[in-house]
Write a structure and sequence with these properties.
By secondary structure, this protein is an alpha/beta fold. The protein is built from 10 helices and 21 strands.
């Protein structure tokens, strides 16, 4: 699809332009700004919000598909599921598992990325674990948690075909700091998560190259006024970016707002941390060989341990605005420009600007996704009013 104009309220995301338009030619944005004479035919969304495409840095699965499924169609189904939530690009995220299982999953993700997907694009991989703290494993499989070694790092990086963009590890464990330096040397974002790091240990990790905190607040030592822990370090150190799972379950709205007030939207990426049973009917399902319970947005193991979320990024934007009291432009920025910057994709992605890829998400004012465009092509269009 080339040579057309979309009209609506633009969320660039840095400003709202009421009565604006985006012109698309040859898969790229040729103009974004106030209404003017249209190029090509008009797609009328004048009553709706026109945003940059959402980018999810941390997503395991959804709608019955998982990034580690052996079924080669799983990633295609996942990409369509994400597109229906306004996501135009994502990092296929793995979980703690035996080395060969992880390597096989990474090779399948690379193959799917090269072949292309029908909805959201695979932008790379996020390897969450296995080098985490077993005391903070959450829903990760403790039987396969292990210490980082250069041999395994090299094997996983090779299996990813160089598409590994983020690795989450616990910086206080074993040789994790050496692993962080190894990752940074190869352009991979070293992230801390599933960690019991103290404030001082967190600062040492930041000194060694850790710049990202996965699903902030969750799976990590909390904030105490005499021992701020890694949460306190993350809120106060400008070197690190934070992920927030804004599903109304993982993090209280006040804590979501606190993070934005402390860091600003340019340092926070909204993520779904969505898992395989997301969007399926309430009930019991298998996830990584264990039983999980789905009830609305809540997905838990026995005992109430959170096992990922049941949202997509349009839901996260809604939570930030309606429950955390964040401005719409800031919430959209956290779903678009910030993750694009973390992946070093700005200004090509994450913004409605001339020359950017025509990755566009259209929502109504209730945050329902009406249209998702990837590279100028509509990959999702809502049915009915």
């Amino acid at each position: 699809m080339a040579g057309y104009t979309i009209r609506g309220t633009l969320v660039t995301p840095f400003e709202l332009i009421s009565g604006g338009q985006v012109e698309v030619e040859d898969g790229a944005i040729s103009y974004a700004g106030p209404k003017r004479t249209a190029v090509g035919y008009i797609i009328d969304h004048t009553a709706d919000l026109v945003c940059p495409g959402f980018i999810d840095l941390h997503v395991h699965g959804g709608a019955g598909a998982d990034t580690m499924d052996a079924d080669p169609e799983a990633l295609r189904r996942l990409s369509s599921y994400l597109a229906a939530g306004g996501v135009t690009g994502f990092l296929a995220t793995t979980h703690t598992a035996p080395q060969e299982e992880l390597a096989a999953a990474l090779r399948r993700i690379v193959a799917a990325q090269r072949m292309g997907t029908p909805g959201a694009q695979i932008l790379g991989t996020h390897v969450e674990g296995p080098f985490i703290n077993p005391e903070k494993k959450g829903a990760q499989d403790g039987d396969h948690v292990r210490q980082a070694t250069e041999t395994e790092l090299d094997a996983l990086y090779t299996a990813s075909g160089g598409t590994m963009k983020i690795m989450t590890l616990a910086p206080e464990t074993g040789d994790a700091l050496k692993a962080a330096e190894w990752l940074v040397e190869r352009g991979v974002v070293a992230a801390a998560g599933h960690t019991d790091a103290s404030y001082e240990e967190a600062l040492r990790a930041f000194d060694r190259g850790v710049t990202h905190l996965s699903h902030f607040y969750n799976g990590m030592r909390g904030l105490h006024h005499r021992e701020p822990g890694i949460v306190g370090a993350g809120l106060t150190d400008g070197r690190v970016d934070l992920e927030l799972v804004a599903d109304g379950v993982h993090v209280h709205p006040a804590a979501l707002r606190l993070a934005v007030l402390a860091k600003g939207p340019a340092k926070i990426a909204l993520v779904s941390d969505s898992v395989k049973p997301a969007w399926l009917p309430d009930g019991e399902y298998s996830l990584g060989g264990r039983s999980v319970h789905v009830k609305g947005r809540s997905i838990t193991l026995g005992g109430g341990v959170i096992a990922g979320s049941g949202i997509r990024l349009n839901d996260a934007v809604a939570t930030m605005v309606e429950e955390a009291g964040v401005a719409l432009t800031e919430a959209v920025q956290m779903a678009t420009d910030t993750p694009a910057r973390i992946l070093k994709l700005t200004p090509r992605k994450g913004r409605l600007v001339e020359g950017a890829d025509a990755d566009i998400t259209v929502m109504d004012w209730s945050y329902r996704v009406l249209r998702t465009i990837v590279g100028g092509e509509t990959v999702y269009e809502a049915e009915g009013p």
